[in-house]
Write a structure and sequence with these properties.
Shape: globular
Number of domains: 1
CATH architecture: Orthogonal Bundle
CATH superfamily: lambda repressor-like DNA-binding domains
Largest sheet: none
CATH topology: 434 Repressor (Amino-terminal Domain)
Pfam families: HTH_3 (PF01381)
GO molecular function, one term: DNA binding
Structural class: mainly alpha
Strand content: under 5%
Number of helices: 4
Organism: Tetzosporium hominis
Protein name: HTH cro/C1-type domain-containing protein
Order of helices and strands: HHHH
Mean pLDDT: 93
CATH class: Mainly Alpha
InterPro entries: Cro/C1-type_HTH, Lambda_DNA-bd_dom_sf
Low-confidence stretches: none
Distance between the termini: 22 Å
Length: 52
């Protein structure tokens, strides 16, 4: 498993544990639902601003 996939799974677990939808999280960090989906699947790297 690549690091971006591992981080994506962690993001998804964090989001689901708090009952947030991808859209909810996207609004919180000022991005799109598509971007959240890409982070969670490992199709896109989440930068440091998103992670911290």
């Amino acid at each position: 498993m690549e690091l971006k996939e591992y981080i994506g799974k962690k993001i998804k677990r964090w989001r689901e544990a708090r009952g947030y939808s991808q859209e909810d999280l996207a609004l919180m960090i000022n991005t799109t639902k598509q971007t959240i989906s890409r982070y969670e699947t490992g199709a896109r790297h989440a930068n440091q601003d998103v992670l911290f």
